[in-house]
């Protein structure tokens, strides 16, 4: 039987899935089902009014039967569903609620003078209520139909004999009602199972999609962080290259002075020392100390500048700073690195524009735009100019226009330049996150806007607008 129900789509192979469906289908709307059960109890007892209209002599007996069933069975079962511990037994309670009045109803016709002449309409009313108002599955409904029909047959055998034609009509009507109710409930359950399976599949797909999206966001976040570290690594490599020159000169000079000192020591240990040799040796040592001091000082300044740039890149705290002076310092610190790529940075910024914002985030944006221009606007290595023009259209807004006169960007690519992982230099090892980081930083960290305008062969303009107080 279970295999047949499974083939008909009225049962799931998976026991866990079947339990979930039953829990949703049978116990999903207990409150509304209780309202229907109350209505059914009062309706069942209320049919005694019809008995009073037709046969007032026996209404006391029929009211006792109908009312007794309603008060002693139907209403207690309805109240029992309010107990949390009884909710797992909801379908059994529904079945008892249906079977008891269905089996007791034929006893009313044993009391009525008309007997079972009008039994079919009464039984059909019970069938109609059960199949439409209660969330019974096809199996419990079949049990209800069988027990109710057996009770009707037994009661008929105890009552006055009916004309053969009337008995046949009554049973035909009742059996036809049973068949229609079984079909209606089976069709309703079949659709509910399909909807349940579809909902489960959508839920699983949603969970998989959300998991994939979380993984994608995590991967993207890691790549963005890696790109930020790569830009800082580029600074490290550039500064290391710049610092190596003065340190090398200082090391060479100190080695030369060491040799001069040994020569002077050997000369002084001899019997005679010429004044000219001593003067020349002291002059060489003084010149060497001067060169060593100058180169060490130059290296110290480079290290200090690098330290400040690194702090700017890592700084996430809000500060108040004068934009013109801050940009001049940033360009001075980035200048040696950009000059190696042939990029000359020019700044036009009026004094007095004070921001209360995040210098680390702004430094990240300016650095990314400058290095992006060096790599993409002048790809042949010939270098060019990168101009920053700062204006203040109103008291609450600062505008930074970053422009180059490079190769420009094709119109069909301009809408994608801020997309993550979009790059036209994939063959050169670029991964396409520089402008994406700049876009996200301006929008999220600086609460501003960024836009790009470009024309092939005539350069690119990146316009940044940020509030004076982020």
From TrEMBL:
Name the UniProt record assigns to this protein: histidine kinase
Keyword Endoplasmic reticulum appears in the UniProt entry: no
Source species: Bradyrhizobium brasilense
Enzyme class: transferase
Source domain of life: Bacteria
Pfam families documented for this protein: HATPase_c, MASE8
Catalytic reactions on record: ATP + protein L-histidine = ADP + protein N-phospho-L-histidine
Residues spanning the membrane: 29-50, 62-81, 93-112, 143-162, 168-187
E.C. number(s) listed in UniProt: 2.7.13.3
């Amino acid at each position: 039987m279970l295999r047949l129900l499974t083939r008909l789509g009225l049962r799931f192979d998976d026991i866990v899935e079947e339990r979930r469906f039953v829990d949703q289908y049978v116990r999903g709307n207990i409150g509304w089902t209780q309202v229907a059960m109350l209505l059914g109890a009062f309706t069942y007892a209320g049919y005694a009014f019809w008995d009073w209209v037709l046969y007032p002599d026996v209404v006391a007996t029929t009211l006792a039967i109908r009312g007794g069933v309603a008060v002693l069975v139907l209403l207690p079962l309805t109240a029992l569903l309010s107990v949390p511990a009884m909710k797992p037994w909801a379908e059994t309670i529904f079945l008892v609620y249906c079977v008891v009045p269905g089996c007791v109803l034929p006893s009313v016709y044993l009391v009525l003078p008309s007997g079972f002449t009008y039994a079919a309409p009464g039984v059909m009313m019970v069938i109609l209520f059960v199949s439409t108002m209660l969330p019974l599955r096809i199996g419990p409904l079949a049990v209800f139909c069988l027990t109710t029909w057996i009770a009707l047959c037994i009661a008929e055998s105890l009552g006055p004999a009916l004309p053969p034609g009337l008995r046949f009509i009554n049973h035909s009507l009742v059996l036809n009602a049973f068949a229609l109710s079984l079909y209606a409930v089976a069709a309703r359950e079949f659709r509910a199972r399909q909807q349940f399976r579809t909902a489960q599949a959508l839920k699983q797909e949603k969970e998989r999609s959300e998991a994939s999206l979380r993984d994608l966001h995590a991967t993207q976040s890691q790549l963005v962080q890696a790109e930020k570290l790569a830009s800082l690594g580029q600074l490290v490599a550039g500064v290391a290259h710049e610092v190596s020159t003065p340190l090398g000169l200082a090391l060479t000079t100190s080695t030369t002075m060491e040799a001069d000192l040994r020569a002077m020591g050997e000369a002084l240990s001899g019997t005679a020392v010429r004044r000219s040799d001593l003067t020349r040796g002291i002059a060489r040592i003084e010149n060497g100390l001067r060169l060593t001091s100058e180169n060490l000082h130059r290296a110290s300044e480079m290290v200090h500048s690098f330290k400040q740039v690194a702090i700017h890149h890592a700084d996430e705290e809000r500060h108040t700073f004068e934009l013109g002076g801050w940009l001049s310092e940033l360009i001075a610190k980035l200048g040696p690195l950009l000059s190696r790529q042939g990029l000359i940075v020019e700044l036009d910024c009026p004094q007095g524009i004070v921001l209360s914002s995040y210098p680390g985030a702004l430094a990240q944006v300016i650095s990314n735009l400058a290095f992006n221009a060096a790599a993409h606007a002048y790809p042949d290595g010939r270098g060019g100019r990168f101009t920053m023009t700062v204006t203040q259209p109103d008291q609450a807004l600062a505008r930074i226009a970053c422009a180059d006169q490079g190769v420009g960007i094709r119109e069909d690519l301009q809408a994608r330049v801020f997309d993550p992982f979009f790059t036209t230099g994939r063959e050169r090892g670029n991964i396409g996150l520089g402008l994406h980081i700049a876009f996200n930083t301006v929008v999220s960290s600086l609460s501003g806007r960024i836009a790009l305008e470009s024309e092939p062969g005539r350069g690119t303009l990146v316009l940044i607008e940020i509030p004076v107080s982020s």
